[in-house]
Design a protein that fits this description.
Blueprint: E1 12-15, H1 20-28, E2 33-36, H2 41-72, H3 83-95, E3 102-109, H4 112-119, H5 121-138, E4 144-149, E5 152-157, H6 162-179, E6 181-183, E7 186-188, E8 192-199, H7 209-225
Parallel strand pairs: 1-2
Antiparallel strand pairs: 3-5, 3-8, 4-5, 6-7
Helix pairs in contact: 4-5, 5-6
Length: 232
């Protein structure tokens, strides 16, 4: 068995050494209790159970805390990262000392209002969840994907040049266009417009993460104006 299997397991010392120095040494090494010989077996079991119960409660609290943090960072509908988390992550990515050339995709579903108006918001939600899944399937393992709001999504691509970003964006666009979702018993062709902005590490072209996002937004606006269902 590897030592990693015992991480977090409470340790109880059982020893014939009764001096205070020995007890302090055992506790300083990470033991949660120190029992000296001779001992009552019932007392030993009771103490072990107490520490196991405490450890279980501590792990439950830690798990609850991690689950709460994950929920706070997640869009409830799509399961993607939410706007708040993306904003924080982008600022962190942008402010690290060893920044590398990276790219950003802003994606917006074309004519999504027509889906909601024609089929209702439940079907609209189905489309959003389906598109979120298709985007996740199309990006690299190192990329992170978020829902930026409404029918707008964002993909942050650490280390990606514009050429790489354009290739991934085209893959996303084609995957969504070719999916033809079943909506209320009908096959519907869904399309998406995508704007790209690339931060160039050698010649920094954005001072803040906000400028980076704004540039991707402008590219997305151009994609919409040029007829939608395209990458700019």
């Amino acid at each position: 068995m590897s030592n990693s299997q015992y991480v977090g397991t409470p340790i109880v010392f059982l020893s014939a050494r009764t001096s205070i120095e020995s007890k302090l040494e055992g506790l300083s090494l990470g033991a949660v209790d120190y029992i000296t010989k001779p001992f009552d077996f019932r007392e030993l079991l009771a103490r072990i159970q107490i520490h196991l119960d405490k450890n279980e409660e501590k792990n439950r609290i830690l798990e609850d805390s991690m689950n709460f943090k994950q929920r706070a960072n997640t869009d409830f509908l799509t399961g993607l990262y939410n706007r708040r988390y993306i904003d924080e992550r982008l600022k962190n990515e942008f402010n690290i000392d060893n920044r590398t050339t990276s790219s950003l995709l802003m994606l917006d579903l074309d004519h999504f209002k027509r889906i909601n108006d024609t089929y209702g918001h439940d079907q609209g939600d189905f489309v959003l969840k389906s598109v979120a899944r298709l985007i996740k399937q199309s990006v690299r393992d190192s990329d992170f994907v978020g829902r930026f709001g409404g029918e707008e999504f964002i993909v942050v691509m650490p280390g990606a040049t514009r050429i790489t970003a354009h290739s991934v964006a085209e893959r996303i666009r084609l995957t969504i266009e070719n999916e033809r979702l079943w909506i209320d018993g009908k096959r519907e062709s869904i399309t998406i417009s995508i704007g790209i902005s690339t931060f160039i590490a050698e010649e920094p072209n954005y001072r803040t993460s906000e400028e980076w996002i704004q540039d991707a937004d402008r590219a997305l606006y151009t994609a919409k104006n040029e007829g939608r269902n395209r990458v700019v």
